[in-house]
Amino acid sequence: MSDSSETAKTQPGTRTLSGSVISDRRDKTITVLVERSVKHPVYGKILRRRSKIHAHDEDNECRVGDHVTIVETRPISKQKSWRLLARGATALPGVDGGVDEGVDEAVEEAVEEAADENDATATPAEEETSA
């Protein structure tokens, strides 16, 4: 019998997506930004659609900026029904061969949002000492 937890092989007909990791803060969970291009039905303009997908990362091996491939699986939790299939090279912003600019912007936005959340939770006494 074949091992169903083997990550190198998938069953025929399973959905796989690739994208960039934008968050790895939670234990055994990554958030992957998947982009796809869609042609507008009336005007014909190519639009970029983005989806944030939560995926299971058993070994906590992925870091922010990694290019990953995920595969659909049974529901693992309320939000997770995808698991990590393969991890590509780390794509650093501003380096040739890295992530395209749209993903860089999304990663920067996610980092700024996290920083804003941290600033919002700071007490007034902490703000005075940091200023």
Portion of residues in beta strands equals 35-45%
Along the chain, the helix and strand elements come as EEEEEHH
Low-confidence stretches: 1-7, 94-100
What's the count of strands?
5
Helix content: 10-25%
Descriptive report:
With 131 residues, the chain is of the alpha+beta class. It has one domain (16-123): OB fold (Dihydrolipoamide Acetyltransferase, E2P), CATH 2.40.50.140. The chain has 2 helices and 5 strands; from the N terminus they run βββββαα. It is globular, with a radius of gyration of 18 Å.
What does this entry show, briefly?
The chain has helices at residues 101-120, 124-130, and strands at residues 16-23, 29-39, 46-56, 66-72, 82-90. The protein has 131 residues and is of the alpha+beta class.
Task: Write out key terms for the chains shown.
5 strands, 131 residues, 35% strand, disordered N terminus, OB fold (Dihydrolipoamide Acetyltransferase, E2P), alpha+beta, globular, 5-stranded mixed beta barrel
Question: How are the secondary structure elements laid out?
Answer:
Blueprint: E1 16-23, E2 29-39, E3 46-56, E4 66-72, E5 82-90, H1 101-120, H2 124-130
